[in-house]
Amino acid sequence: MSNYIVYLEQLEGLFAGWQEKYKLFVPQEKEGFYFLEEYSPEAEISFDYDLLYNPPKSFIFPPREDLIEFDLKTYKSKPLFTVSPQILFGLHPYDIKALNQLDQVMDMGSVDVNYRQRRDNTIIMGLTPLRVCPEAFWGSVNAFNVDFGFDLFWTKIGPATFLVEVGSKKGEELLFVNGRVDKATSAEREVARRKKQEIVSLVQKQNRLKYSWEEVPRVLEKSFDSFLWAEKSRKCLACGSCNLICPTCYCFDILDEVDDKLNKGKRYRTWDGCMLESFAKIAGGHNFRGRAAERYRHRYFRKGKYIYDMLGELGCVGCGRCVRVCTARIANPLEVFNVLWEALSYER
Ligand code: SF4
Ligand code: SF4
């Protein structure tokens, strides 16, 4: 893998070159929070953001997506799908890991073509975090490092200097869009390695799983009847925020809407979440997860066991978004996984 050096002053030129073909999204601050927003030369890029509020999945798997439009008079329909090439600049490793996981899930069995086409038209540029949000625990769930899933990966190694690792041929071409850039020396590579290690140590010190992440499925398996599910879920508002904000959650619903004259309509898909009361409601009004405790438990089993059984990794990358958005303060997977483990330790 080649490594190059890019200086801050070169960025504007690079970005302008990329914008000729791509929509470019970069981290920016708005009222104290960080978002991935479209770049303009006036934009102030937040290289030191701690967490992006909008999960990167929303650029590839939008919260609402029109699928087909239909005519109820002629019974004709046509697909609605648009895709434009885009660059997501500045994703932290745990968010790239979440996208890598979505790639696997969406390609499984019958391929989700809309997702796949958008993903194939998306360039991912990673960024080593410079700060850690207080809720994050990605250092404990094997999400502090990625070795694939990006086209370029940037690490700030000086006030105005970045080391850029190449992850794909396309990424390298984009780096050379205004001519060649300097190769990194072994000393500069060493500085980047240390910067990555420092931030991992910081997040691991801050919030830590008290045991190996690979043990989480076993801990959950033994905790199916734990008192914790009922106790914690008593406070749940069933708002679904913890699902919708999560970079690895991918459930959706498909709905139709028709105009008021019942002539034409659209079929669209929209994000859904297992914490919503309606999620498991079926014909006849039956609900196979009607109780809050069942929904609450299910979410943790998805994050800690079911995805692991399918892909060999946790369905949680420890970003901390759900912890931040839950007004009832009960959505923290790290806390739940630790409490369950401690309860099992007392039993031994
Ligand atoms: S469960 Fe919470 S911490 Fe884990 S990936 Fe989803 S939003 Fe992030
Ligand atoms: S756990 Fe929190 S965020 Fe999730 S549905 Fe319940 S109240 Fe909402």
Descriptive overview:
- It is globular and about 65 Å long.
- By secondary structure, the protein is of the alpha+beta class.
- It contains eleven helices and twelve strands.
- Helix content is 34%, strand content 21%.
- One iron/sulfur cluster (SF4) binds at residues 245-248, 303, 316-322, 333.
- The site of one iron/sulfur cluster (SF4) has 13 residues, from helix 10.
Rg, nearest Å? 22 Å
Briefly note the structural class of the backbone. Answer: alpha+beta
How would a crystallographer describe the biggest sheet? 8 strands, mixed
SSE string, helix = H, strand = E? EHEEEEEHHEEEHEHHHHEEHHH
Q: What is the typical, i.e. mean, pLDDT?
A: 96
- Count of DSSP-assigned helices: 11
Distance between the termini: 48 Å
Identify the bound ligands: iron/sulfur cluster
Number of strands: 12
Strand order of the largest sheet: 3-2-6-7-8-9-1-10
The tally of structural domains comes to 2
Query: Which word captures the global form?
Result: globular
The proportion of residues forming helix, as a percent range, comes to 25-40%
**Low-confidence segments:** none
Strand coverage percent: 15-25%
Key traits:
single chain, 348 residues, alpha+beta, 2 domains, 11 helices, globular, binds iron/sulfur cluster
Explain the layout of strands and helices.
Elements: E1 3-7, H1 8-19, E2 23-30, E3 33-38, E4 64-71, E5 76-79, E6 86-91, H2 93-107, H3 113-120, E7 122-127, E8 152-158, E9 161-166, H4 169-175, E10 182-183, H5 186-206, H6 216-221, H7 228-233, H8 241-244, E11 252-258, E12 264-271, H9 292-311, H10 321-325, H11 333-347
Parallel strand pairs: 2-6, 6-7, 7-8
Antiparallel strand pairs: 1-9, 1-10, 2-3, 4-5, 4-12, 8-9, 11-12
Bound molecules: iron/sulfur cluster (SF4) (2 copies).
One iron/sulfur cluster (SF4) is lined by residues 236-242, 275, 325-326, 328, 330-331.
